[in-house]
UniProtKB/TrEMBL annotation:
Residue ranges of domain BFN in the record: 1-133
Name listed for the protein in its UniProt record: BFN domain-containing protein
Entries under SUPFAM superfamilies matching the protein: Hypothetical protein TM0160
Pfam family, one: BFN_dom
GO molecular function: nuclease activity
Organism: uncultured Acidimicrobiales bacterium
PANTHER family named among the record's database cross-references: VON HIPPEL-LINDAU DISEASE TUMOR SUPPRESSOR, VON HIPPEL-LINDAU PROTEIN
């Protein structure tokens, strides 16, 4: 297993699909991009930006329940990719016993952020799916409300207008 860290939550253009960027700690600095839902992406950003909800949200509640019943989230692992879907596991310690629970990567990462536990990725999975991430590619930073940041969109619109041709319209 390779230790990873969340380096960003972006929106891929033109599909406006949120993508979580998990980067290898040390080593080759490969990045594992995982597409997630907008609510999960927004929840990650809220933690990264230190925003606290007046009432516990689902991931906060789940983390509190684990703590209250004496279960520790030791780590989360991104383990597999099958038919275009990533798989993850929660590695829990309960009463001295280790338990592994299957999870969606978006849920696993959200819980890891709140529990402060490591995120790891299967070596072979990272070798086959890890990429060198270029932050200047077609992606924009997502704000906590789930919307792309306006200044980035304006810049991209200006660039698009500068390069548009009549034949682009058919």
């Amino acid at each position: 297993m390779v230790e990873m860290r969340l380096t960003g939550v972006k929106v891929e253009l033109p599909t406006n699909t949120p993508v979580v960027l998990l980067q290898e700690v040390g080593g080759e600095q490969r990045t594992l991009p995982i597409f997630v839902g907008m609510p999960e992406a927004t929840s990650m950003l809220q933690v990264l930006q230190g925003q606290v909800s007046p009432r516990p949200l689902t991931y906060d509640l789940f983390t509190s329940v684990l703590d209250d019943v004496g279960v520790r989230l030791e780590r989360v692992a991104i383990t597999d990719l099958r038919d275009g879907t990533y798989y993850a596991e929660l590695h829990l310690i309960a009463g001295g016993a280790r338990k592994i629970v299957s999870a969606r990567p978006s849920d696993a990462v959200n819980l890891a952020l709140r529990a402060g536990c490591p995120i790891v990725c299967d070596d072979d999975l990272l070798a086959s799916e890890g990429v060198r991430y270029d932050p200047d590619e077609d992606a924009v930073q997502v704000s906590p409300d789930g919307e792309p940041q306006a200044e980035v969109l304006v810049d991209e619109l200006k660039e698009w207008l500068e390069h548009i041709r009549p034949e682009d319209f058919g």
